[in-house]
Amino acid sequence: MDERATGYRKTIGVLLAGGLARRMGGGDKPLREIAGRSILARVIDRMAAQCDGLILNANGDPQRFAFTGLTVVPDDIPGFAGPLAGILAALDHVAAHHPDIACVASVAADTPFLPRDYVSRLHAAREAAGVPLACAESEGRSHPVNGLWDVALRDDLRHALVEEDMRKIDRWTARHGVAHAAWPVAPVDPFFNANSPEDLDEAEALIARYGEI
User: Which CATH superfamily is domain 3-210 in?
Assistant: First the structure.
């Protein structure tokens, strides 16, 4: 397929599941269930149709995610360095195992209503702006963890994490240029994430009202 002619860009998706889940009382937020299905299963379904492959970023015993069939890629930055460390792990993995793919799309693995046009719209925003990075946005609020990343920037990201102790995503992306792709929030914000038991209840109510959005 001619990528330039079709507008299609090969992309690997990474599901970021390395958070500490403090507001959920610990454990793996993506494994919590909403309407009888885990949040992670919902995210996988939505991302699999948009990407040329998926990987999962998580730390600890990877066997707890064995049921997904996905490759689990842990952080290799010491300590809990936040989502940028997970993104770096994904970029390094893609560079090593998928050298023909230049882009990684990241999503928070606790985002059950992820847009079905997520990856294509990030690519469109990035290319229209002529910048190497893109970030999702809804109702005027950016979602830095949900974005599109250029594998070629992985060395600079490692330097930022290791040598500069950088943890804030926006600070690093601003250095290179980042486009924003905006989505409507009706009937549901597609970047709703389940951080607490109350959020799980809200998600259940939204599905009961609107169905599988």
Answer: Spore Coat Polysaccharide Biosynthesis Protein SpsA; Chain A (3.90.550.10)
